[in-house]
Amino acid sequence: EAIIKGFTMSIQMKKVYNIPEMSSDIMELIIMYAYSQSVPITSGNVEELLSISSQFGIPGLSSLCMDFLESQLSFKFAIHNFEELIGVSEEFLRLDFSELCDIIERDELNVRNESLVFIAVIKWIYHKPSERAPSIERLFPFSGKSEEIEYMRGSVEYKLFIYRVLLKMIHDLSIREAAAQQPRYSIVHSRLPYSILLAIGGWRGGRPTNTIEAYDVRCKDLERRDVYGGNGYVYFVGQFDKVENYNRVHRFDPVKRVWQEVAPMHTRRGFVSIAVNNYLIYAMGGVDGHTCFNMAEHYNAETNQWTLLSSMNERRCDASATTLHGKIYICGGNNGNDCLSTAEVYDPIVDQWSMIAPMTIQRSGMGVIAYKDEVYAVGGFEGENDLKTAEAYNPQTDTWRSVSSMINARSYFGIETMEDLLYVVGGNDDFTTYAKVECYNKESDEWKEGTRNECGPLLTELLCAVWPAQY
């Protein structure tokens, strides 16, 4: 009886805590560290572990992450993860002058805005101000005559000098953005894009097209151009060319510019939904011209093999899917008769599909994308008309919420996230095919039409982001 009472009391004392913005994998590692004081740190989890350990005050884990970064720090890692490193890495502050220059001068440096490089350099100088102050003139060659540099007279003059430099930088960047002209004192360095959007194929004039366009968010326009070189492949899975459905799969090497056919899917199907998780390509649903499928399979590039998975709860073609926190979400589509509002999630660990809360409206041919810890369902066709509405799903609460509508109603479009914005590209409305591009900012809950001039990040860093509190 005493054991039963104790067990009942322990159940009553248990509480459930929701910790947003933390994946189950990271939580498992946090718990592992709490028990063993050790954890397997990799380049894939170190950034999130470091961020979470700092947020919840776990100095021992932060120290392990910093030790890992110190042992793994390379120029390739630094230039690809520059913004994260300057925010949390003490190792960056310990770089010597030549190492710092080697990073910030590289064309491949991944920064959304050159002002972030400026702020990083200021942080690096303030880490050892007396030792590094003489480096200012070499780091900021646009500052003017050497007699104008008064950093040796004390902290007040030093602060005023940097303040002048910052104002000049903001002024020059504003002129560059407004007039697209080279300013007299330019600190803007044209760098190679770390990520781009590719608009591939689709329909134009009532027939399929093989056109490829590339968009660099740091340039002014979306235009047809040679595909940028980069790592990895672009895969084309199944689909429909207005004559027949395919199970063929091709991949494109953007560096060598070579096409290659790889292992086909198990079944011919068009209007199939695709998602990528843990380096595996998932193909779900689709139609063969007669039957709408609920089957799912994934492709392993290392073995060049497709593997059948558990079937979805509903038959779906013309649906859309995405990956969030290691799980795959598929929404809407058509079951062969009706447009669907239902959605479900796949857990690859247990190979199981589970229904989640339905969307607020049925959508087919819409865009689904993971964006800032939510699953967004945008646009699509509801059975009679194309839609401009959008909604977001929160996995923590299993609820959908409405967000601002797009400017243009559209279906069958491309959707992707890049540099903290959500982009929709092309598609159809009730009458024609679009070339229009829109982007959405979750912070302002606002859509804007166009490319970089309207959608790109603006220079909004404040002076308080540069100066230490004691100043």
From TrEMBL:
Domain BACK: 49-157
UniProt cross-references to SMART domains, sorted A to Z: BACK, Kelch
Membrane-spanning parts: none
Gene3D superfamilies membership: 1.25.40.420, Kelch-type beta propeller (2.120.10.80), Potassium Channel Kv1.1, Chain A (3.30.710.10)
Keywords carried by this UniProt record: Kelch repeat, Repeat
Signal peptide span: none
Highest taxon, organism lineage: Eukaryota
Matches recorded under InterPro entries: BACK (IPR011705), BTB/POZ_dom (IPR000210), Kelch-typ_b-propeller (IPR015915), Kelch_1 (IPR006652), SKP1/BTB/POZ_sf (IPR011333)
Entry protein name: BACK domain-containing protein
